[in-house]
Write a structure and sequence with these properties.
With 246 residues, this protein is of the alpha/beta class. The chain has one domain: Rossmann fold (3-Layer(aba) Sandwich). Strands 1-6-5-2 form a four-stranded parallel beta sheet, with helices on both faces. A two-stranded antiparallel sheet has the order 3-4. β5, α9 and β6 form a beta-alpha-beta unit. The chain is globular and about 50 Å long. It binds zinc ion (2 copies).
């Protein structure tokens, strides 16, 4: 065992003793701080998307049909035609370890290593690997003050660090305070509530670039779609990466 790894494990064990962390999913104990608030078993039981999944090539919706790899680029769900991004992908469905990690990220601005690694994997797959600059979906300033941070920015910064892609948190702003999306809102209500909410403040920084928008959850795609619509004229292309798909 490498010395650094040994120290890491010792530190992990010490931290677990001092701050025992109960798994947010099963209540068991979390043994590595790299796993965040979820135990290893629950991470292993959580579904993540991989190259074997058949997805709507554009919005990333999971398809029930299994299609041979050569035909995957032609798969469309039929609900995302008007969305202005090129393609959206998520690490996996909004459940298990991914759901628990997203909820934790709303409380504490920290991305556990295990989550960051999944995000990097998703970013390095086709077609997201074409992106040149990472942009977090902005929160309205009032909301950011309320929470103390923007969780999308925390994710984007970590992905930038791991991927080596530049990170731009200033070019895109959210200038209207949109109503919080509630579970009961349908796709149209969500779309209406964020339409026109985003604007590009510094076009030169993203002009002609392939932008990867980063957010925590993709629900109906309304937020990502509205943000992509605002920057598509400045950018050459817009991709979207979220931790989970609801
Ligand atoms: Zn667990
Ligand atoms: Zn779709």
């Amino acid at each position: 065992m490498r010395l650094s790894l040994a120290i890491d494990r010792t530190l992990d064990a010490a931290l677990t003793l001092v701050y025992p962390q109960a798994c947010s999913v099963c209540g068991g104990s979390v043994e590595s701080r790299h796993d965040g608030v979820v135990c290893d078993a629950c991470w292993k039981a959580t579904r993540v998307f991989d190259d074997g999944d058949t997805l709507c090539w554009k919005c990333g919706a999971l398809s029930v049909a299994s299609v041979p790899e050569v035909r995957r680029m032609s798969i469309r769900c039929g609900r995302c035609e008007t969305d202005t991004y090129i393609a959206a992908r998520a690490c996996g469905p909004y459940e298990g370890a991914l759901r628990a990690s997203i909820l934790q990220l709303k409380r504490k601005p920290h991305v556990p290593h295990r989550l960051a690694a999944l995000m990097l994997e998703a970013q390095q797959r086709d077609p997201l690997n074409d992106a040149e600059v990472i942009v977090p979906v902005p929160l309205h300033a009032d909301r950011e003050r309320e929470r103390g941070f923007n969780q999308a920015l925390v994710l984007a910064r970590e992905l930038s660090r791991l991927s080596g892609l530049p990170f731009d948190q200033h070019s895109v702003v959210r200038h209207t305070h949109t109503e919080r999306h509630r579970a009961g809102m349908d796709a149209k209500a969500r779309r209406d509530s964020v339409e026109g909410a985003f604007a590009v403040r510094h076009p030169p920084f993203i002009k002609g670039k392939k932008v990867l928008l980063v957010d925590d959850v993709f629900t109906t795609g309304a937020t990502a779609g509205a943000c992509a619509a605002a920057i598509k004229d400045a950018a050459e292309a817009v991709f979207v990466l979220t931790i989970a798909r609801a």
